[in-house]
Write a structure and sequence with these properties.
Number of strands: 24
CATH superfamily of the largest domain: Zn peptidases
Structural class: alpha+beta
CATH class of the largest domain: Alpha Beta
CATH architecture of the largest domain: 3-Layer(aba) Sandwich
Shape: elongated
Distance between the termini: 22 Å
CATH topology of the largest domain: Aminopeptidase
Number of helices: 10
Strand content: 25-35%
Radius of gyration: 23 Å
Number of domains: 2
């Protein structure tokens, strides 16, 4: 029987589809936001629970599994040779704040739509990759290499999982892909820098300020409590509402989130709130006003113009910069930024000096929270061609490798590129339903097609010898 016939039989089997959805539902139900260590669970109990769920599920399918100290886990499909091909995904998710129309941690099946936190980033794609491995296991097709699916527990919070795997001396696949981006193949990613601008001595009018929840998404909500009576008159403004907290005036701002790698069209709630507090005259303390001006002016656009870091290169395009979080902490005001910079830009020699100069000009201290260089893969590499061929073979769409500002495991693991699984825009529009957004969703048909692409990709990689 030809490969295509075996693929048709497997992916057309209703029982296989039903089992896939049942397994995915159990994984979506785990609110696996990476958190502080809890005993042996280095990224918190829920992250560990998600890793354990995948390993248990895979063992039930007959796969070999390994738990790497709750940093990550491996599912292994043995092959006929000593080499390995890796698939590197993650089961931690970003928090599901804000108003959702659907349950946040429950898989909703609405026609062809699958909805729930992590269904697109990255639990659904991990499940799709495991289904591709299951195809080979059940079809009896032996590959000339083993396939190792590595399931991480901290991709969204700094990728501290894969360095532990590498430090253990475990096998490093000769080539890997991560199903944590868009099809067809990403051959280059921008560098990433997350940093804080820390302002000291904040007080006066401002009792507290809190905006955003993660560094790598534009803040979609922010709130401030002022040392003013709750009934203080406030002008009307779009996206702003007022309330009361302990008898004091509370001002809330709503924004429109987007991933830090693709922030165009977003509305930053921190910027909106800062601008309102300044323009309304509610803040009179100059120290507080200076920080709010920084929030407004340093983030005037998403190109880094307000910080003097705007730039671009031909391979990966323009730099982007967003505010993901801002909050008062022990008398200080901390503004967190997330920068995606061109792969050709030197962080130490070019970007870092400009960030220091910008913070110093505003009277803030610079604190680097995360920094990783990007990567670039040759466009004519045999592995890139094999992945593109697989995508075209399954979808009929001509494939060409691309570059992006997103940060995936490809930058943290040797010889790795990003490959799917996203196949189109959210049916809810650009600001709802995508990764890190409310009502995160994918089309089941797209996810099932992605799984088939991964199966064909493994077969084409097997032909490289």
């Amino acid at each position: 029987m030809e490969l295509s016939e075996k693929l048709d039989r497997f992916y057309g089997d209703e029982a296989v589809r039903a089992a896939f959805l049942k397994g995915l539902a159990g994984l979506i139900a785990i609110p696996s936001v990476s958190a502080a260590a809890e005993g042996e669970f280095v990224f918190g109990r829920e992250s560990a629970r998600a890793i354990g769920y995948v390993l248990d599920y895979a063992r039930g399918l007959g796969f070999e599994t390994e738990n790497h100290d709750w940093y990550c886990g491996s599912v292994v499909l043995p092959g006929d040779g000593p080499d390995e091909i890796g698939i590197v995904g993650h089961v931690d998710v970003v928090p599901a704040f804000g108003d959702w129309e659907y349950p946040k941690y429950e898989l909703t099946v609405d026609g062809d739509l699958l909805i729930g936190r992590g269904v697109g980033d990255d639990k659904g794609p991990v499940a799709a990759a495991l289904a591709a491995m299951t195809f080979f296991k059940e079809s009896g097709i032996r590959l000339p290499f083993s396939v190792r699916l590595i399931v991480g527990g901290s991709e969204e919070t700094g990728m501290g999982d894969l360095p532990h795997y590498l430090a253990l001396g475990k096998p490093v696949p000769k080539f890997s892909f991560t199903p944590d981006s868009s099809f067809p193949v990403c051959r280059a990613e921008k560098g990433i820098c997350a940093f804080d601008a820390v302002f000291g001595g904040i007080g006066g009018d401002l009792i507290s300020f809190r905006g955003g929840s993660v560094s790598n998404a534009v803040a979609d909500s922010a709130e401030a409590v002022l040392d003013l009576p709750a009934d203080t008159p406030c002008p009307a403004a779009e996206g702003i509402r007022t309330g009361e907290e302990n008898g004091r005036l509370k001002v809330c701002a709503a924004g429109r989130s987007a991933h830090a790698a693709m922030p165009e069209g977003s509305i930053n709630a921190v910027v909106r709130l800062a601008a309102f507090l300044l323009d309304s005259g509610l803040v009179r303390d100059e120290r507080t006003a200076r920080v709010l001006r920084y929030c407004r002016e340093a983030n005037a656009d998403t190109a880094g113009t307000g910080m003097g870091i705007a730039c671009a290169d031909e391979l990966t395009g323009p730099l982007t910069c967003i505010t993901g979080m801002a909050r008062t902490e022990d008398g200080a005001f901390v503004v967190n930024h997330n920068v995606r910079y061109p792969v050709s830009l030197s962080f130490a020699d070019e970007l870092l000096p400009k960030l220091k100069a910008s913070c110093e000009a505003w009277g803030a201290a610079l604190r680097i929270r995360e920094q990783s260089d990007g990567y670039a893969f040759p466009p004519d590499a045999p592995e890139i061609r094999a992945l593109c061929r697989a995508y075209t073979e399954v979808t009929g769409i001509e494939a060409e490798a691309y570059t992006m500002g997103g940060g995936t495991y490809a930058r943290a693991f040797p010889n790795t590129v990003a490959f799917g699984a996203e196949m189109g825009e959210s049916p809810f529009g650009p600001f709802r339903g995508n990764a890190h957004q409310n009502d995160e969703c994918v089309r089941f048909s797209d996810l099932w097609t992605a799984s088939r692409v991964y199966a064909v990709a493994l077969a084409r990689l097997a032909e490289l010898g």
